[in-house]
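Entry 14. Two folds queued back to back today. First construct below, sequence then structure tokens.
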Amino acid sequence: MKAVNKIIKQQKIMWATLLILFLVCVICRTLPKISDVNWQTILSLFSLMLVTQYLINIKALDYLSQKIINLAHTHRQVTQLLVLLAGFLAMFLTNDVAILSLIPLFLVIHKQVHGPFTFPLALITIVANLGSALAPFGNPQNLYLYNHYQLSTANFFKISLPLFLISFVLILLTTFVIPATPLPVLKQTDYEVKPISLIIAFALLIVTLAGVLHFVPLIYTTIAVVAVILITNRFVFTQIDYGTLITFIGFFLIVGILGRQKFIITLVTQLLKQSFFITYLTGILLSQVISNVPATFLITRFSTDITAIFLGVNVGGLGTPLASFANLLALKQAHVHSRQVLLGFLTINFIFLIVLATIIFLLLPQLIKLSSF
């Protein structure tokens, strides 16, 4: 009984997701379709989780955390370094990779310095979402828009660069809210990372990213990663949070059902006939309900306001846990079970969403003119 209670307590988000899925099925009077699940995403997450856990096991994250702590002198500087690192990874390796790589690192650092928790966690998630907006391959909605409208790389950056710059400045200024409290004096630990283990970890990461970025079929890279870890450290498989994978599958099924509802399709069709302002706001609001990737698929069926769509769905990644799967992933990776932490995370996300959405709304005519092609 204790084991069951422990599983329920540790997997609150998973059980809540499954309950919501059941209620959505009952209310909408329909069953989920297995085709609603983006198995590419599930395989990507599974591979990245394996590699991240392998890095944890060989003490690579402990070693890196110590280096970051040595570079920083205050809690604010620690957060700023993590935010910059998250933005860099999200720009080049997608927001999911940034979250999966840095949230475990943040947890290791927090355990040592005992600084603020909720605010840095929210900022890392926010910067991962917005940093990924810069490049066509940074997140799924960008890749879809890039291919759907057959944009050139130059034209894509005309749309994405202003949002990235505005977001970067806003996030950097926000980090100054964190007190510049000096870090405690820590005993230096000599973490021994075996060179052969580090080489294996680096090779696994390269192989995984090759699959995630579609250079190699993902199924092949996943099989390769599983095979190597089975041989080198099979204990990793017992440490993976499979609840995260079940949660993501549940959300894909929920989103699939909602995206097929006639009232949602009718509402979106009517709204997008109005103006590019409405298209932008629709992207934000719809993302809060069905996530920004399905929202992108739905809106592009009825509108050609490329800049308004792009800005709406990328800004709309902030807000609810469902707005972007990266939000959900961050909460799961951080093992957030406290109501206080969850409410704080959501509050920071919504404040940032309102501020950034307002700035972009006021600048929207200029941004559309700037990105015209």
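Second construct, same run, same settings:
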Amino acid sequence: MQKLEQKAYPAAQAILAELSSIHVTIASVLDGSIDGEVWADSPVNPKLVIVINGDGYFLAGNPDISQQTANDIRDIIPDWAYLFAEECWFPHFAKIWGNQFVVPHPRIRMGYVAGNALPEPYLPSAEFEIVPINQELFSRNPENIELLEEKAEGWVSADAFFENAVGFCALHQGAMVSHCLTDSVSGTRCEIGVDTDPAFRRMGLGRAVSSATLAECIRRGIHGIEWHSHASNKGSLAIGKAVGLTELDHHMAYSCSLPAENIGDLTDETCLNLALHFEKASQEINWCHFHAAGARALSGDRENALKNIRLLIESDWEGEAEWLERFWALQSLSGDPDFHALLRRKREMEAS
């Protein structure tokens, strides 16, 4: 396996055609508009290709490979990867992936059907303002703008972001409380995502910023609008449907993490089973305590959630206290003095 130069990317397009038809991210990496890497078994006539974008890994090609190639793939795909692969690869994960504790993440892709009417953006009160995500917004520097700064860093340059990205956000008293933004754009296709501060959910803000973003995409001639979501994310799917998107397909990702993004997305029984699974995994991969703690907290098991956090901190985990503090699955512990004591302990370790 070798990392391709961008001039060699066209040779990988045929192998990636199926995955690229589902994931605009791949097309955007090949276009060179967002950051990424492309690895292949040959720069001229590849039969196996891996595309990397952040923690997302996309695997396509023929799984009939040598042990040496399998070892090369294991070196490329880390334990913590979020992996999308063609179905033919699913039975071969044990051979190509060092993490044997990954769990399936069912996902749904929605899309815009040309001609569907878009709802007018609606705001719950005059206290809110919907504004485009552009250079002017960054100059205003509203509270929480770092969320968008992180997304902008995923593009090859700031100019590429401001020229190609499309999005809107809702501001409330100088803070950004909801936003919808294209994660990637390639030609007339894009993938968009939405996020709303938990304190401002169920107010229609996600629907408002999403509707405004879709309308602007269409105005720019970007009609292939796609929306990817965990199958468990009822809120995201409801917003997509409300702004006129239609379900396109179901597909699977794999990761050693919780297959959800919001409290209430998973049943208590599912959370308990995941906790037991990640606790077993933590015997070999210490950072699995992180997700075990989240699963325990979601199931209402405070004591074992704290136990997993303590074990995580006492290991050689290289993460940060802020990751624990911001982890959505641990929000039930936000006011817990024992949780904060563990965070202080971690921060002292980071400072030493």
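Quick look at the second one. Residues 205-219 form the longest helix (15 residues). Residues 57 and 83 are 5 Å apart (CA to CA).
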